[in-house]
Specification:
The protein has about 280 residues and is an alpha/beta fold. It is built from ten helices and nine strands.
Length: about 280
Amino acid sequence: MAIVTLTRQSGSFGDEIGMLIARRLGYTFYDKHEIEKRIIAKGLPREEFLKYDERKPAFLDRFAKNRDKYLNFLSSVILEIASEGNCVIIGRGAFLFLSDVPNHITLRFVSPMQNRIKHIMELKDIENEKTAQSLLEKSDKRKMAFYKSCFKYDLGNHDLIHATVNTSMLNSDMVAEMICAGIKSNVTPEVEEAGKKRVGELILAQKMANKLIFEHGLHIDELWVRVNGNEISLHGLTSFHATVERAVTILENEFSGYKILSEIKCVQDNRFSKA
């Protein structure tokens, strides 16, 4: 019926509420462990996964091809899960990959620091409040850095979030019940069908990106492929016009019936510059 994605502050009961939503709707709950398992099964080494997964990468890693590689694997897994439908996905920027999918609902859970401290102390059996607060502050900074580095997104910006819930104001069961009722009322068969179509387009776009990067080894940084009906647009950065021409030719040959447009920016290509 729907694809539900969640982001949350650590200690805000986001995971617990996510599991309640999945249980009440009969959906499958996908946490970091399941996503990690799927990404590694697709071929990304675990040590590379751990460099980027919801953390700020080291300075040099921010510019490495491995970051884009991680994001391509992550996108493939998120879209694969979305295509199965009836799912709740927590964290990992999932809501950004699915932002324009009609049957996608995204929520954020927050709570005052003191409430979060109390919860994390109980959850992790921590006796010292300062230790718990330090743990939460590090978690907040790590997540903010992850979204900024990998998605250029400010996690404090809620423009792409359908609803932000302060979990200190309501108990988890009530929050889950409200969300489930909203999903049942608003995700109609027509909305679900439109969502399936859009996810299919996103999967095709990811398939095209993977073909260019992994199968043909083209050097296009931050490659993003957008599918809109039978029109395909390519976005990203590369050093040579020849790379752009090759990318367009590959997709025209291997995906007939689509109009391929390039918005890829070329930098450091001086072949037409005067001596």
